[in-house]
Amino acid sequence: MNYSLIRPLLFRLDAEKAHNATLKALLFLPKSLFKQPKSKPVNALGHIFNHPVGLAAGLDKNAQHLDALAGLGFSFIEVGTVTPRPQLGNQKPRLFRLPEAHAIINRMGFNNHGVEQLVANIERSRFDGILGINIGKNKDTPLDKSLDDYALCLKKVYPHASYVTVNISSPNTPDLRKLQHGEYFNQLVSELRTEQLILADKHQRYVPLVIKLSPDETDEQLKIMADVIVSNGIDGIIATNTTCSRAGVEMSPLAKEAGGLSGAPLAERATDCVKVINEVVGKDVTIIAAGGIDSPKVAQDKLDAGATLLQVYTGLIYKGPGLVFDLVEGLSFG
What we know:
By secondary structure, this protein is of the alpha/beta class. The chain is built from eleven helices and 13 strands.
């Protein structure tokens, strides 16, 4: 599939409309159009991944396109972020391309159809691969009630997930990142770990728990959070979410748009975060690297920094689905 011919047409559309149109188009495209990567197995989070490259949350928020996305060659797919109740998200426009920097700014705001609908979509799908489900809190839920939202979502998605990601690091829900600090963080991690073990006993099935962290924390704060994660027996960390920094895109006319920046400008900082976290967690916690992965070199840098698995999103927008094949072919590890 020659994505370079299609991309100019997609980029003429509003970014969110192009996103939705692409997902709908995938429903009608045969799997044979997409080159499938060779197997380079990875043992992590209690699963054997066919290779390290997966899809990050955000592309398929409601798990409506699992069957179509399964044909693109990912070894795992993460859906969401999902919240207990449906919410519209922030006002449009809320998704912006910065082509000169191979970057995106988004302020979507956890727009989704709610956890009940996500579960129904998963049950209707034929997808039988490794599935991560990313959970969050509703915008109007007070911070001191956040645990209720995360616990409810965890209970609902647990029977359907290969692992569950706790998103406390999006910059697009007011005050959400405060959950990464102090007693908020300690309590959330501890209580969700307890709930995970209760659910594992109830369902006779252990589903790993993963925490997604922000790249905008200091190295010292990352180490503090990593230490809490290790001490509570949490299974994984995603490093990282989008950034509020505009380093590398300062001259873009869109640089002042609010929201999280993703793509190539985030790559170096996200890799540094992997290194810092790995110094604390070692082999005790699986690190999933995300942020600016658009070439085998960037992907390899993250594995060398201590990551075991990789997630892509923005790179797909600029490089197309062939990126998955190219990344896997260019990786060396083991």
